[in-house]
Amino acid sequence: MHPTRKAVATAAALLVMATAGCEAGAGTTASHRTSAKPGCPAAFSRAKRAVKKAEEANAPWKGPTTGPKAVHGKTLVYIAQTLTNPGVAGVAQGVQEAAKIVGWRARTLNGQGTPDGLRAAFKQALGLKPDGIVISGFDPGIAAEDVKKAARAGIPLIGWHATAAPGPSKDLQLFSNVTSRVEDVAKISADWIIARSNGRAGVVLFTDATVPFAKHKSDLIKKELATCSGTELLSYTNMPIPQVNSRSIGEVRSLLSRFGRKWTYSAAINDLYFQHAAPALRAAGKDGAGAPFNIGAGDGDPSAFQRVNGKDFQAATVPEPLSEQGWQIVDEFNRSFAGAPDSGYVAPVHITTAANSGGALSWDSEGYRQAYRKIWGD
Asked: Is 108 helix (H, G, I), strand (E, B) or coil?
């Protein structure tokens, strides 16, 4: 077993022993629990089962083990929606790492989080005449004409969180879109709130309505929260990711003024929201290990793990395996270059908390590097 996973398993075992006999609280403290009876018994029981499965520490590789050998000498351009988004930046690092293994060149361009910036980056990418282009964290429709130009030039496109669904998209000219299933991520994020709060939570939900993928995710979280009658959605707050740094303090102050102690839980479409919400919560005298208990429905970057491990205004994250997905992107390009279909692989959903992280700063399946290197013949 990987040493980090071993530490996680040990921590999980100790947690089970320590909490035996008080499972009905789903991890809530006595001071937070408003009633021994769940606010929504059926939804609570279902959520509790789902969360237990998603918190399992070990995740052996269940991705592809066969595929074409590496085609050498290719070039990739990775267009990032914004490199201030840690998920986008983390996948970019994974692409760089994997590209080096197969002897490719990979360049990252920053779209600066604006439509004009993304279109400019796409035009620059086309000018570089690469063998493949990654559309990371933004809707291909923003640069529809350039997408068509890439298709006419025979340049395959692969997305990361570019559409709501994993896999190929003929309409958007994507050979594949690498992402977890947004339905799974949204559902488990809401289920964690339902299970941990004993079905009694006052929730603030943060989203970026400018990104269809993000908006869809937050809508699904809202829908799942509504399955529990004891859970109240206090606010559905739209803060575009590029504005989170400048707007968070004001928004959090306003929410605290409006809802006070009713605000007990938060969910956000990205962990970045809690990085910038923390100063305002701290200034208001809030305890980093107390309410509001915050869960990030993506992407699980190292700073999110640090906050979770340190109980610093983030209690959980639903991480994407960022490095692993960067490697998957390279593998999908290799399949495209070889004339093979996409792999069809979708990473499983996972919840990381201080109790099961083992002190790690990332989450990915065990053995993915070895599996891909074997496929590529490295």
From this structure: strand
For residue 265, CA distances in Å to 33, 77, 95, 251, 347 come to 13, 39, 35, 15, 27
Q: What is the pLDDT of residue 36?
A: 67
Distance CA 271, CA 48 (A): 22
* Backbone phi, psi, residue 136, to 5°: -110, 110
Taking CA atoms, 329 is separated from 102, 153, 171, 227, 346, in Å, by 13, 20, 19, 35, 12
* Among 291, 297, 266, 268, CA closest to 187: 297
Nearest-angstrom CA–CA distance, 217 and 208 = 10
CA gap 273, 204 in Å, rounded: 12
CA 319 to chain CA mean position, Å: 5
Distance, in Å, from the CA atom of 61 to the CA atom of 370, rounded to the nearest integer, reads 10
Hey, how many other C-beta atoms are within 10 angstroms of the C-beta on 32?
18
CA–centroid distance for 210 within its chain: 17
Tallying the residues shown for the chain, one arrives at: 378
Cα(94)–Cα(326) distance, integer angstroms: 4
Phi, psi angle pair for 14, to nearest 5°: -65, -35
CA distances from 78 to 34, 87, 179, 311, 369 (A): 48, 13, 16, 34, 20
Helix, strand, coil percentages for the chain (3-state, nearest 5): 45, 15, 40
Question: Residue 136 has what DSSP assignment?
Answer: E
Global pTM value: 0.78
The span from the CA of 205 to the CA of 274, in Å, is 12
Residue pair 230/200 in contact by the 8 Å Cβ criterion: yes
Give the span between the Cα atoms of 9 and 28, in whole angstroms. 21
Encode pLDDT of 107-160 as tens digits. 999 999 999 999 999 999 999 999 999 999 999 999 999 999 999 999 999 999
Residue whose entry in the numeric block shows the structure tokens 């996680």? 8
